[in-house]
C-alpha cells in the first residue's frame, strides 16, 4: 500500500500539486487521470522519489520516504517496477539483455538464475523465443510486453506505469491493460497508472484519481463514474461521444 498525504509541489513559485492525498491498495489497479498539465506526471515522479515535494508525506507500507536513509531508499528502489511511456527499451540490447538489466544492477545472482527468471517473466507476458531479438524487430505491443517483463523481473511490490498504451492500437491496448491487471492481482502488487485512455479507465479502473489544475477533483471507481454528479469528471470523461452514449444508456437502465 502507498499512502500520500497533502502533497504540494511547485516550480518557480507556481503550484503544480496542491495538497494531493490518496491511498493506493495492494492488488488493485489505480489510475491517475486528467488533462495535460493537471499534475499527473509530477505526482508520479514525486512518488518515485524523482522529485521532492515542498510539503507532504509519501508512505510505502508504513515506511515514510522522508525518514529513510540513502541505503533504505536504494532498497525501496529494488521493490519498484516501472513501465515508461514508449517502453524505453535499450535499442542496442536484446530482449533478454533488456529484461535482465535490473537483475544485473540490483542482485548478485549467478547468470543461470538470472536467465531462469528472465525466461519466466517473458513466458508470463506471453512472449517466448524472443530472447535474442532486438526491440526494433518487435511490434509495438510486443515491446510493451517486454517493458512489463523488465518491470516485474525483480518481483516488485509496487508497479508504476506511465501511459502504457501510448501509441498502441485499441485491440493491443486492451491486451496490455488486461496483462497489467492480471499481474497486479496475481502478485498482489500496488499498481499506479498514469493514463489518458478512457478505455483503460473503464476496463481496469478499480480506483480512479482525477486531477484538475493540481487538485484531486474526484476519486472513485469506473462504476462510480456513471453515477457521479461531479461536473469536472463528467465533462472530462464524456467529452467523447461514445461515452456520452454509454452514460445515457446507463441512466435509462437505472430509471
Helix content range: 40-55%
CATH homologous group name of the largest domain:
P-loop containing nucleotide triphosphate hydrolases
Order of adjacent strands in the largest pleated sheet = 6-7-8-3-9-10
Q: Indicate the CATH topology of the largest domain.
A: Rossmann fold
How much of the residues is beta strand, in percent? Answer: 15-25%
How would you describe this protein?
This protein has 2 domains: 2-79 and 156-254, 3-Layer(aba) Sandwich (Rossmann fold); 93-155, no CATH class. A 6-stranded mixed β-sheet has the order 6-7-8-3-9-10, sandwiched between helices. It has a 4-stranded antiparallel β-sheet with strand order 2-1-4-5, with helices on one face. With 255 residues, the chain is α/β, with parallel strands linked by helices. The model has no long low-confidence stretch (mean pLDDT 89). The radius of gyration is 19 Å and the shape is globular. The protein has 10 helices and 10 strands. Strand 7, helix 6 (170-187) and strand 8 (190-194) form a beta-alpha-beta unit.
Give the SSE map:
Layout: E1 2-11, E2 14-24, E3 29-33, H1 40-48, E4 55-60, E5 63-64, H2 70-78, E6 80-83, H3 95-106, H4 111-124, H5 140-152, E7 158-162, H6 170-187, E8 190-194, H7 198-204, E9 207-212, E10 215-220, H8 222-225, H9 231-237, H10 241-254
Parallel strand pairs: 3-8, 3-9, 6-7, 7-8
Antiparallel strand pairs: 1-2, 1-4, 4-5, 9-10
